[in-house]
């Protein structure tokens, strides 16, 4: 039992907030395994009920990053991922976006996990596509260099998170940990397209990335989804250097037609993998348009596109040329490496 966490719990019990340094110290205690399940649950629920602050999220991310197993990535690498938790059961959007963006010659360090709140997570669909998500750690930078993207399987890079796993399951509700994963990319990327499960989190997440020194990001939410949607209006908060601004994006801004969310409902890993493969082979429809919209946003974040229409054009060209499909095929091949 950690006596060091008791003063923090006392402050939270009377409604006080933590500074980033205090939050970092508290989460380091949790991730070191020194806190009891009761202490972890009390801290998480006190923050959830009062509302987590940017300083608290920033400190928690710093603690998480300090204990992660990191890899090297080239300058300009980007992550495309979401918090999960939207419960929509859609086809895998960010995984498909990763291949399209890599097909545009932008290095992608894709952080992800197996299904937690959805039917099919990034690791599940990639495994179904023949990608080895457990490739040796030492080979990951080389995989990124050759394929243009790499999958960073969260449990392997954040082993200290296991200490909070039990209390999180027992609480059975969203906590600050749902926000931390997308903010702790093991490749230390400084550019991100990140989806959040509720629009209220777009600005705090952008402010957190600013506090952490990131260069560019779009934090997005689309009609209940932790990604941009072609179904209607999307909420976006963008970080560019030291500037943060919030705005609305609609599919027409990117020259794309509207389609209902039901048009991209997914299924199990095999169903979602087949849809993703077909998309990269040129299949049309709402799934393709959703991926193009998100890829366009990622290309803006990467500094490759000036606006959404240009980004859609570049993304569509990566599919039409076969470059996006080639990224999948190369990742499948080079990730098959095993320990020597």
UniProtKB/TrEMBL annotation:
The record describes how the cofactor is bound as:
Binds 2 magnesium ions per monomer.
A Pfam family this chain is assigned to:
Glycos_trans_3N
* SUPFAM superfamilies attached to this UniProt entry: Nucleoside phosphorylase/phosphoribosyltransferase catalytic domain, Nucleoside phosphorylase/phosphoribosyltransferase N-terminal domain
List residues binding Mg(2+) 1. Answer: 94, 227
Residues in Glycosyl transferase family 3 N-terminal domain copies: 7-67
Which residues are Mg(2+) 2-binding? Answer: 226-227
Q: Which residues bind anthranilate 2?
A: 168
Q: Where does 5-phospho-alpha-D-ribose 1-diphosphate bind?
A: 82, 85-86, 90, 92-95, 110-118, 122
Q: Might you give the EC number(s) for this enzyme?
A: 2.4.2.18
Key words, A-Z: Amino-acid biosynthesis, Aromatic amino acid biosynthesis, Glycosyltransferase, Magnesium, Metal-binding, Transferase, Tryptophan biosynthesis
Residues binding anthranilate 1 are 82, 113
Name the pathway it acts in: Amino-acid biosynthesis; L-tryptophan biosynthesis; L-tryptophan from chorismate: step 2/5
Provide the Gene Ontology terms for cellular component: cytosol
Gene Ontology molecular function, alphabetical: anthranilate phosphoribosyltransferase activity; magnesium ion binding
Q: Which residues form the Glycosyl transferase family domain?
A: 77-325
Cofactors per UniProt? Answer: Mg(2+)
Q: Which GO terms describe its biological process?
A: L-tryptophan biosynthetic process
The reaction(s) catalysed by this protein are: N-(5-phospho-beta-D-ribosyl)anthranilate + diphosphate = 5-phospho-alpha-D-ribose 1-diphosphate + anthranilate
Q: What does the annotation say about its assembly with partners?
A: Homodimer.
The protein's role, per its UniProt record: Catalyzes the transfer of the phosphoribosyl group of 5-phosphorylribose-1-pyrophosphate (PRPP) to anthranilate to yield N-(5'-phosphoribosyl)-anthranilate (PRA).
Q: Which family does it belong to?
A: Belongs to the anthranilate phosphoribosyltransferase family. In the C-terminal section; belongs to the anthranilate phosphoribosyltransferase family.
Record's protein name? Anthranilate phosphoribosyltransferase
| Native species | Rhodopila globiformis
Read off the lineage from the record.
Answer: Bacteria, Pseudomonadati, Pseudomonadota, Alphaproteobacteria, Acetobacterales
Gene label: trpD
